[in-house]
Structures are given as structure tokens and as C-alpha cells.
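Quick sanity check, ABC-2 type transport system permease protein:
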Amino acid sequence: MSDAGVIHDIGYQRYEGPRLGRSAVFGAIYQHGLRASFGLGRSAKAKIFPWLVAGIVLLVAVINAAVKAQANIILFDYFSFDDTMSWLVIFFVAIVAPELVSRDMRSGVLPLYFSRPLRAFDYIGAKFAALATAVFLLLGVPQLIMFLGGAFTTKKGASGVWNEFLDLLPGWGYSVLWALLFASISLLVASITGKRAFAAGGIVAVFLMTTPVVGVLSILPSSTAQHLAGLASPMSLLAGVQSWLRGQNSMDLDIGDFGVIYGIELFCLVAAALLLLLARYRKVASL
């Protein structure tokens, strides 16, 4: 045999360990996405904005709990807290959503991801779950602080703690709706471009530019248009759903008898955003 035909053993070995499959890949992407949402495992620069937003939200919750304990004045209940923090939630998803999807798109690693057993559905599902969890933690942890402040200062004993807990649960449910809607829309917008600055600007524009539309529709002479005005903006849409489920909301939004329309639009908006995301990444996977 000539020297050109010699096979050299340079130490490569076949992988003989367990193959964990799609669920393990899903979990790894979810965990990485959740950590990346708060800049964990990254540079100090990546932690500044997420933790600045989280710190402000936590500070508001602590102040609210302290005022309630000392003066028995409720600045925010669990529902109005979410509505009041809407601007901070917008800025949070505008920074985090491009971090989760635009970086992969810009670096061109998606075809490599999808060459493995990973499916586009798994990738989108893990990213969506990670961002939705991050938004829920952003709102849910301060709500828990408000609950603890109310529970430890109540003068009604165990019944007071139980009543505070019954107030907290629907508040957490409202935060889940915020997380699902904001995560789905912001990921869809961020998936359009690999440039994080453009993606962040697009997310802020989508959420804020719809607000004036609500104002215009709400001053029309038609009562139907006024009742349906809240459908034009994600924030007022959530307030409308709150009004439908509770019979009141913190934005003084009058939805008339159209509460079910608000609920249907919320469901359809989240579903449509996820389906468009899936179509977008299936196209990338097929390249």
C-alpha cells in the first residue's frame, strides 16, 4: 500500500452515550433563553437593562406594600399593577426578544440547528416559553412581594391571608395573559430582522403606535366604535379582557357588551403570531 492510502488514527471516537432527543433540546433552548432574558451567563453590559427594569418594577411593588402596611392605602391592586407597568414591559420585551431570536438569525446558525432532530416548532416553542416565563417573572415576583406585604400586615389573621391569596391568584392569571400576548407579538416582530436595533425599534413601534388609534376611535360618536376601540392596542385589549372577566378595569375602558370579542381577539392574536412565527422558521429550516 502506498503512503497516500494509509488511514491514520488521530483519536476521534464515536459518541456512545445516551441520545436525549427533542425534549432535551427543547429544555436546553428554553433554559438558555430564560437565562439570556436576564443576561445570566453573559457580560455585565447584557445584564444592565433587564435588571434595571426588574429593579424598578420590584421597587414599585415594595413601595406599594410599604404604603399599604403603614397607611392602609392601596396604590395598586394586582391588576392595575400590570397595567401601570406596561411601558416597562414594552421596553423589556423590546430588548429581550431580539436577544433571543435576532442573534441566531444574524449569525446564521439556524440551518445548523435545524439539521439536527430539532424542529422549527421546538425552536419557536422554547423561545416563546422562555420569553413568556421571563415576562411573567417580571410581573409575578413583584405581585408576590405585594402579597407578602399584605399577608404579614393583615389584622384579620388567617382569613386575611387567605383573602389576600385569593386576590393574588387572578392577578397572576392576568400577568400570564400579559406574558403570552407580549411574548408572541415581540418574537414575531424580532424574527423579521437579524439586526437587534431595528427589531427593538419595531417592537416599541408596534406597541406604542396602536395607542393613538384607541384614542381616535374612543371619541367617535358611535357607541359601538367606542366600545370596540380597545381592540386596536395590545394594552387596552388586555384591559378589555380584564373588564370582561372581572366587570371592571383600571383604564376606565368601556367595552359594553363586547367582552367576548376582546377574549376572542386575544386568543386569535396570540395564535396568529405563533403560527406566523412557525411559518417563518419553517421557511428558514427548508433553506
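Posting the structure with no commentary besides this: Residues 23-209 form one domain.
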